Sequence to fold (151 residues):
Amino acid sequence: MSILASPMYFIMVVSAVLTLTLSIVNKVFTDPDRMKEIQAAMKSYNKELMAATRAKDNEKIEKLQKDKPKISQMQQEMMKMQKPIFLSMIPFLVVFYFLGKLATGQGWGEFIQLPFTISLFSVGNDLTWIGWYMWCSLPFTMLFRKALGIS
Fold:
């Protein structure tokens, strides 16, 4: 029996492979501690700026404006870390395109007949192939992020 004969298992395997790939890219190209540090600094800066603006404290606003280049530099650093993750989405779109073509070509149709019922949201046992992909990717994401030590 070919794995293509069972769209449920095939899509589960594809989901695992794609999720693992994205998790590895995330692990290699991002520094989670630095990301948290940057996000905390930006949040603190924005909170202080909002408070100073509401209080119309021009002195505090001027002081905060002097820190703006540093905050902008931190934002750029964060974007550089996230860029590979965004670029890795391109292959995902290609895979989804071919999965759609495969679903049509293999006669899976729009819905996959699951051998069990998903009672959440009253889905029953009919699910689109992309819905099944997303359903599978959730536990794989948690598993791979935990295994790779990604928070």
Summary: The mean pLDDT is 83. The two ends are 39 Å apart (CA to CA). The longest strand covers residues 111-118. Helices lie at 7-29, 32-55, 58-87, 89-105, 129-148.
